[in-house]
Amino acid sequence: MFDHRIMAEDKLTLYRDLASALEGLISGETDAVANMANAAALIYETLPDVNWTGFYRNVDGELVLGPFQGRAACIRIPFGSGVCGTAAATRETQLVDDVHAFPGHIACDSASNSEIVVPLVNDGELIGVLDIDSPVTGRFDEEDRAGCERLGEILSRVL
What we know:
Elements: H1 11-26, H2 32-46, E1 52-59, E2 62-70, E3 76-78, H3 82-90, E4 94-96, E5 114-122, E6 125-134, H4 142-156
Antiparallel strand pairs: 1-2, 1-6, 2-3, 4-5, 5-6
């Protein structure tokens, strides 16, 4: 059992410590599902004000639900649909202050109000996306983008 209680007074330190804990947690493990499951749990337990953290995997050009923490979620998302599908199609991080204003938003959990989705790419191939939701409108900012993209880089090497 691991106890990765990460407390920090600023986001830079929080994400630095989170990235370090993630690297330690997945070190030496080659199973993608195990790594996604532990990563989802670690991120969910660490980041404040989040209500869903998990992965959608690229399966034959469609996003399919992977390991997550939070309420039950949408199972399949076409590329280009919603925040996750847009991140997959563009391979660009999507930082959305108000998901209800996002064109084509897919409401898996009505409690979610803001979202960040990071595409996971390895050797030019889209593996999937890291998706983090919050009930707080405007929860994610550029520091979160940088921190989550760092987590995505770490994960992309082992998935």
